[in-house]
Every structure is written in C-alpha cells, then in structure tokens.
Design a protein that fits this description.
single chain; 5-stranded mixed beta sheet; 31% strand
C-alpha cells in the first residue's frame, strides 16, 4: 500500500509471508525510481512479524517504510517495485554495515545492543528509561531475556501478560528480563508501561533519526517481536520470536553457571 504523507513523503506498507528454516527465503524491500531511472530506497519506520498462521513454520511480516521528500518527493515517483535479496546476501551486507555503525556508536558514546550471534558471548551496556546503567557483566549468573518490542506491534503486545506471568513465576530462580522499546514516541511507550505495570527494566531505543539508524543498523534488531535468551555465562542461546521461548528459558535455568 502506498500513501502520501502531509509533508510530501512517500509511505509504503508491505506485508508478505515467509517460511522459516535455515534459508527462509529472500529478504523483500521496496524500491522506487524517479524520472531519470535513479533508484531510491525508503527507510524502515516500523514493522513486525506474526507466527500465528495456519501454515506450519510460516511468518507474516508487515513493514512500514518512508522515503524522505528531500531524497525524492512522493509526487516525483515514477515507478515502484519490490526487490528480493537472497537471505545469505542480505545478512552478509547487514553484518558488514553493522561493523561500521558500531564504530560510529563508539565514537559518539552511544550505548547499544550488539549484533546477535547465537553461541557467542553477548556483551552490552545500556541506559534504562529511569537512567540506570545495565551491564551484561553484572548479570552473569542469571538467565536473561531481552524483549525487543513496540506498542504498534500487535504480537508484541499480545505476549505481554503471559511474559509477565512467566517472569513472576521464574524470577526467584535467577531469571531477569530487559525490555527494549522501539516506539518512535517514548511517551506512548511510557503510558503503556504504566498501564501494564511491568516489573523489569526498560530501555528506549533513541528516537532521533540519525542515532536510531546507527542503533538499528548496528544490531539488526528491526523485526519485531524479537527475543534474545542469554545463559548464566553471558552466552546468547536463542534469537527468535515468542514461540518456544519459555522452554528456552527453562532449559538454561536448569544449567548452573560455569564460573568462567
């Protein structure tokens, strides 16, 4: 679906179904062209995934994109299409861009989550919504779930009551949660957090466009909901959606820290 925003920007909403697996299929994204045939890539605004489909192993992805009118106004778009990039190529390109963004973040003193690689240590420093500092090294010995979510992501919100119940049940065993909110307006997130009365720490992704682009490019966490499970030794053990995350957490709660 294509829309013209009041400021002259082109807004694009794309929904498509993909099957999971080692090679889940090509990554799809919109591309537009001007009268000279020049290619323009809209930037991601928001989006998410829903696994609650009748087709086994399928995910419905829905993403919203925006093309800045300073790049190309909506009324000057001549043609529009969808590009399909093989998963292996897409991931390699994104990981390469991640390295550059992490260097930018370090130079500017921006705290962020790193690119998730299952089986490797996951080290980070983050500032919470109430200005506390969270360091991965201080959470060693606990099983940690990082919940990447947004209020506009319906699967994110649907899982919240169950996640809160699970936290209250297993927290005493050494289970912790950090919420990472991707809303473009922090006030919206604060209102929902107050309503839900979530007992864990929350981190807000920066809302200014330049910093957010560095943040999201550095870690690739732009497909919501996204949940990361980190074991007692600080090693990332799971990167995926809500389905089955309870079992993952329970599994690593049974494993004591190695003391490394």
């Amino acid at each position: 679906m294509l829309e013209r925003a009041p400021d002259g920007a082109l807004v694009i909403i794309v929904a498509h179904m993909r099957k999971g697996g080692p090679e889940p299929g090509p990554a799809l994204h919109p591309v537009v062209f001007d009268a000279r045939g020049k290619r323009h890539l809209p930037k991601t605004l928001e989006g998410g995934s829903n696994s609650g489909l009748a087709v086994p192993g399928a995910m419905l992805h829905h993403m919203k994109y925006r093309l800045d009118p300073a790049d190309l106004p909506a009324n000057q778009v001549v043609s529009f299409g969808i590009e399909a990039v093989p998963e292996s190529v897409s991931r390699a390109a994104r990981e390469a861009a991640s390295v550059e963004s992490i260097e930018k973040a370090r130079a500017r003193g921006i705290d962020l989550l790193p690119w998730p690689r299952v089986g490797e240590p996951y080290e980070f420093t983050l500032k919470t919504a109430d200005d506390r500092v969270l360091r991965s090294r201080d959470l060693k010995g606990k099983v940690l779930l990082i919940d990447c979510w947004a209020t506009w992501c319906s699967p994110c919100m649907t899982k919240m009551p169950k996640l809160k119940e699970f936290y209250e049940k297993r927290h005493g065993e050494g289970f912790e949660i950090i919420g990472v909110n991707f809303d473009n307006k922090q006030e919206t997130a604060r209102q929902i957090l107050k309503k839900l009365d979530l007992p864990w720490a929350e981190v807000f992704v920066p809302t200014d466009e330049e910093t957010r682009e560095i943040w999201e490019t550095a870690n690739g966490l732009d497909n919501l909901p996204r949940l990361l499970v980190i074991d007692r030794d600080g090693v990332l053990r799971y990167d995926g959606g809500p389905g089955g995350v309870d079992e993952q957490v329970a599994r690593w709660l049974r494993n004591p820290a190695s003391g490394r």
